């Protein structure tokens, strides 16, 4: 482990100890996971907006930049003020916003950003109350472009957006892959707006 990685892990752990349910993990995402996410996002065009929710200490951010995402097209939303300051210092040229994901539309509209092609979420959706989870997903859908998608990972076998909520919001889920070498192993999902007229009876791609 390099000096930077050790510094990140210690700082991340200190923030987790303050708010474990909001942080969701005791350590930053590993390289196997961040590279899988970055490969999925890198299909985006050079002039399209990418938004990262829950930037933490920047493990996913760094992988996105290494994959060729332009700094001036990357927006990072992080509610923890200390983590937001960390991100601003480590990733100059990106747009770092200190705020809640439920207010995503407001934050982007103030800065005239959008529509968004990809949203990468490190938020612990499965541990959030259903009302908050629904509010976050609704905010995401409000800023995604027609061909946009949400990339979300989770640490369990269950889809991070239950079937009933997917049907309610009109979401289609597709499994992207599993980062087996991440600790713990993580599954990556891609969510898109369901095509109009497809109905709620279409076969889901992930379990409830």
TrEMBL record:
This is Ribosomal RNA adenine methylase transferase N-terminal domain-containing protein. It comes from Nisaea acidiphila.
């Amino acid at each position: 482990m390099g000096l930077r990685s050790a510094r990140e892990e210690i700082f991340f752990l200190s923030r987790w100890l303050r708010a474990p349910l909001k942080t969701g993990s005791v350590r930053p995402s590993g390289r196997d996971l961040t590279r899988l996410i970055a490969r999925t996002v890198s299909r985006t065009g050079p002039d399209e907006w990418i938004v990262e929710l829950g930037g933490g200490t920047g493990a996913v951010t760094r992988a996105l930049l290494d994959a060729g995402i332009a700094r001036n097209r990357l927006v990072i939303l992080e509610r923890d003020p200390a983590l937001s300051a960390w991100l601003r210092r480590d990733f100059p040229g990106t747009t770092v916003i200190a705020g809640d994901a439920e207010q995503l539309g407001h934050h982007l509209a103030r800065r005239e950003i959008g529509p968004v092609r990809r949203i990468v979420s490190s938020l612990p959706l499965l541990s959030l109350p259903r009302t908050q989870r629904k509010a976050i997903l609704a905010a995401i859908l409000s800023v995604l472009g027609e061909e946009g998608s949400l990339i979300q990972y989770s640490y369990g076998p269950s889809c991070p957006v239950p079937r009933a909520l997917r049907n309610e919001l009109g979401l289609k889920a597709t499994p992207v892959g599993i980062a087996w070498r991440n600790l713990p192993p993580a599954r990556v999902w891609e969510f898109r707006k369901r095509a109009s007229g497809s109905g709620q009876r279409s076969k889901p791609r992930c379990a409830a």
